[in-house]
Design goal:
Elements: H1 7-17, E1 19-20, E2 25-31, E3 37-39, E4 48-55, E5 58-63, E6 77-79, E7 85-87, E8 96-104, E9 108-118, E10 127-131, E11 138-144, E12 153-156, E13 163-164, E14 167-173, E15 182-188, E16 198-203, E17 210-211, E18 214-218, E19 223-228, E20 237-242, E21 247-248, E22 255-260, E23 263-268, E24 278-285, E25 288-299, H2 307-331, H3 348-366, H4 379-386, H5 393-400, H6 414-432
Parallel strand pairs: 1-9, 2-9, 18-25
Antiparallel strand pairs: 3-7, 4-5, 4-8, 6-7, 8-9, 10-11, 11-14, 12-13, 12-15, 15-16, 17-19, 19-23, 20-21, 20-24, 22-23, 24-25
The structure holds 2-acetamido-2-deoxy-beta-D-glucopyranose (6 copies).
One 2-acetamido-2-deoxy-beta-D-glucopyranose binds next to loops.
Length: 433
């Protein structure tokens, strides 16, 4: 192999040897893989003394000039007597910038650049992306597919038009979009048959903020609520709000907001009884708005339990309650009438189904570490929260009176409540250990 000098150095050598003509032309050629191509060197010059070809700065072949004579290292390259370089067969890697330098008899050097483009498609698929904007009235989608030659044709959706581009951005009015809608970008190219057109898709999703729906804290401590929203497409704008009027929480000495990736944290400093209320984590994108509802209970410092212990306590309590509910419902399956006529227990099979699904639901809800299901209005969880404080039956009623409460979630019987109380005592014993 020859010593390879960088292109600028070679050009410097050339201009030192002889005057460069000043007509520095560039030609763009395309070639098909497997075919052949001839790269001409600065036209047909009669008195050509020497010629050399370089590709991407490296000498391919040279004859009679200031460089050491070199036969092409690659059998596919041939230096023709007239100075042209022929390549056969062409491969994809031949794409690149060729430079021909040629010395004429009158000490003039001619330089010509040839840009060779081999027709090909990359092995990749196009890339579908959502363009980040604050605007929720529309969605911008970006489809890009780089590396194909010639430039591919891209199209968003069946009814769109194909456009010759490597990157196609569309703006869609959100009123025409719906949750779960799949947006597809198709790429066409002469090397791909229609059936083999490459594509990529984006599935649009409304936000779904997740977090702990119920929190109990000691008065005077700092409390951090975490809300995670990572399913929405396009990414949602998430905010913390407080109270039934859902006032936007403004950071300050009382409230500290921080975000880490998809997590938005709200720290409430020095919890007091005034802070006992609903908080909302509100996520919005062009497809819609979803809220996580969190209720904070503030315990006075006389309470011996930490938030963690209370959490375990609630979990134990509710697993117990679930078993009790299931047992009770099953043993009374002929007589229970749930939710004021919502379900008449005539059919044994129906009732068994109901018990199964309720059971599952309650156990799922009580696992404290898992992302809770409290999205929108999960009133079941609100009720569960109320169970430990047996002194506020009024509040239970208040909550149950909320119009969102599904009728079938109401306490089935008085007797069941009693059984829950029993379970609670057991759980309390557990906590003391
Ligand atoms: C450069 O060469 C081309 C043809 O090879 C010719 O048409 C053009 O006029 C030349 N330009 C100059 C500045 O000499
Ligand atoms: C070309 O250059 C060489 C060496 O620099 C010199 O001897 C010769 O006379 C030059 N020829 C012409 C035609 O200028
Ligand atoms: C679309 O994506 C491509 C590739 O990431 C990028 O170069 C281009 O700037 C994007 N266009 C817009 C409008 O964001
Ligand atoms: C979106 O569509 C609605 C109704 O179809 C229209 O009122 C609104 O102006 C459109 N918005 C944009 C940004 O085109
Ligand atoms: C509560 O937060 C405030 C403000 O960040 C801080 O000064 C204080 O030390 C924190 N208190 C506790 C108990 O962590
Ligand atoms: C916390 O708030 C109470 C009143 O609710 C106040 O008396 C106390 O000084 C506050 N503590 C801190 C550390 O700010």
């Amino acid at each position: 192999m020859n010593t390879v000098a960088p292109l600028p150095l070679i050009l410097l050598i050339l201009s030192a040897e002889a005057a460069v003509s000043g007509n520095d032309t560039e030609t763009v050629l395309s070639a098909t893989p497997g075919g052949s191509v001839i790269l001409d060197c600065a036209g047909q010059r009669a008195a050509r003394v020497w010629t050399s070809w370089m590709k991407d700065g490296n000498i391919i072949t040279s004859k009679g000039g200031p460089f050491t004579d070199t036969d092409p290292a690659d059998q596919r390259f041939t230096l023709e007597p007239n100075g042209s370089l022929s390549i056969s067969p062409v491969i994809t890697e031949d794409s690149g910038s060729f430079l021909c330098s040629s010395g004429l008899s009158d000490n003039i050097t001619v330089i010509e650049r040839v840009q060779l483009q081999v027709i090909h498609v990359p092995s990749t698929h196009p890339d579908c992306m959502v363009v980040q904007t604050q605007d929720t009235s529309s969605v911008q989608l970006n489809c890009s597919w780089f590396g194909a030659y010639p430039t591919p044709r891209l199209r968003w959706e069946e009814d769109g038009d194909f456009q010759v581009t490597e990157s196609l951005v569309v703006t869609l009015n959100s009123s025409k979009l719906s949750d779960g809608q799949k947006m597809t970008c198709t790429a066409q190219h002469e090397l791909l048959t229609k059936e083999k057109a490459r594509s990529c898709s984006i599935i649009l999703k409304t936000p779904y903020p997740e977090g702990q729906p119920l929190v109990t804290v000691l008065q005077g401590t700092n409390m951090t609520l975490t809300c995670t929203e990572n399913v929405s497409v396009p990414p949602a704008n998430t905010t913390w709000r407080k109270g039934q009027s859902q006032d936007l929480i403004v950071p300050g000495s009382k409230y500290i907001l921080s975000s880490e990736g998809p997590e938005l944290k709200l720290t409430i400093v020095n919890m007091s009884e005034d802070d006992e209320r609903y908080y909302f984590c509100r996520s919005e994108n062009a497809l819609g708005v979803q809220e996580l509802e969190v209720y904070i209970t503030v315990k006075t410092s006389s309470s011996a339990y930490t938030g963690a212990v209370i959490g375990v306590f609630i979990a134990a309590l509710i697993v117990g309650s679930a078993v009790a509910v299931a047992k009770a419902l099953y043993s009374r399956r002929h007589t229970i009438c749930l939710g004021g006529g919502f379900m008449q227990a005539e059919d044994r099979g129906d009732v068994l189904d109901l018990v199964d699904s309720d059971d599952e639901q309650i156990i799922h809800d009580t696992v404290p570490q898992l992302p809770p299901l409290a999205n929108g209005r999960h009133t079941t969880l609100v009720q569960i929260h109320r169970i430990p404080s047996s002194d506020d039956h009024e509040e239970i009623e208040a909550v149950e009176a909320k119009p969102q409460l599904p009728a079938q979630k109401e306490e089935p019987t008085e007797e069941l409540k009693e059984e829950k109380e029993e379970e609670k005592e057991e759980a309390e014993d557990l906590v003391l250990f």
